[in-house]
What we know:
The chain is mostly helical. It is built from six helices and no strands. α2 (12-45) runs parallel beside α5 and α4 runs antiparallel to α5.
Amino acid sequence: xxxxxxxxxxxxxxxxxxxxxxxxxxxxxxxxxxxxxxxxxxxxxxxxxxxxxxxxxxxxxxxxxxxxxxxxxxxxxxxxxxxxxxxxxxxxxxxxxxxxxxxxxxxxxxxxxxxxxxxxxxxxxxxxxxxxxxxxxxxxxx
Length: 142
């Protein structure tokens, strides 16, 4: 924004930071919804396998862990790729950061933890649904 225009706007960097944070939050929600869709689709495709596991005596907790692990592995892979790109892009955003280093470990750790928590939540619902699969119905399916 031109200096003559920015003079009338109160605390412009703060407003820009709030907007950036809001867009980041929207991106996180969209990523969580997308991950829920992918994990839900994967569970749907594996209904017969889950039914066989349950019929052979698999515990509900084991099925829950299996589905949660699949979602977390998927998210961890994406997180590692995203962290690599973020570290590579850090020097280019240096001028936009106020009071924070582009390589701030606390920020990278906090965002990674938030993404993994969102992934666990997005994976839990399909995992819980998978534990309620009736083995007889799953074996008859297709």
